[in-house]
Amino acid sequence: MFSPVSMLILGAIAVLIFGDRLPEVAKTVGKGIMEFKKGLQGLQDELTAAVNSVDTATPGLMHAEMPVEDYEEATAPKFEPPPSAPAQQPASESSSGSIPV
User: Domain ranges in the chain?
Assistant: First the structure.
């Protein structure tokens, strides 16, 4: 990921910035990383426990196959054309702009 030369340059910059406090800063950063990893592990454990409790509460529910008789066939209403064509209005009524009630 990083070459040895880039690591040396980053180390030199860290020494210039932090000086005598560098060990204390490294210790604090290390503790922060450890706490973060512990938090992630706890979250992963809770998630795993929740998934396992669902699996044990309903065994085989997720993988059960439904019998063929229980399937409902999807149906849609069939289109039926109107019994006769709509009547044409005279041209004089349609140009007036009024809506017939």
Answer: 20-58
12 vs 25: CA distance, rounded Å: 15
44 neighbors 36 (Cβ within 8 angstroms): no
For the stretch 43-98, pLDDT in tens is 999 999 888 887 666 555 555 555 666 667 778 888 888 787 666 766 655 555 55
Which pTM does this prediction carry?
A: 0.42
Residue 25 reports pLDDT greater than 80:
yes
In angstroms, the CA 44 to CA 50 distance is: 10
- Gap between the Cα atoms of 1 and 12, Å rounded: 18
Residue type, 55: D
* Side chain identity, residue 72: E
The kind and range of the H/E element at 37 are helix 22-57
Q: Which two tokens stand for residue 20?
A: 């005598």
Task: Name residues whose C-beta falls within 8 Å of residue 43's C-beta, 6 or more positions apart in sequence.
Answer: none
